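Late entry, written up from scratch paper. The run itself happened at the end of the previous shift, but nothing got recorded in the book at the time, so transcribing now.
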Amino acid sequence: MLCPYAILRCRFEQIDKFVEPGLYFTKNDKAKKGNNLMSLDGKYEIELQTTIGPARVSLTLKAEGTSLSGALDGHFGRHSFSGGAIKGNDIALSINLQSPMGEMKLDVTGTVNGKSIEGQVQLGSFRPTPFKGSRAN
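Output as recorded:
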């Protein structure tokens, strides 16, 4: 059941379709976030569980509707990305990295839940690496 505030917002913004609580589409098909969901935007300090031990990196996320952009900072430098996707609390993004073995594609999938984030990273043909972390800001 929608609260009176949500009903007023529907009338004011001419909402066409609710996707899930807090994410809706207006008549001009631009996704907007409601006030009842925490934004994914921000910097996350994450720890990858690699075969050679834990590795710490920072992941900065910027959401615009269902699109995701940002940057990954770690021992390999800073790598920006765009073209990522958001579905509910789930994220997916890809980054091309320069490594000693040449260019490699890094595929990240994860879930943001409040201030925490977890998921897995697929680096080229290596086995998937799990990660966990939390919002830094």
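Residues 1-37 have pLDDT under 50 and may be disordered.
(Scratch paper discarded after transcription.)
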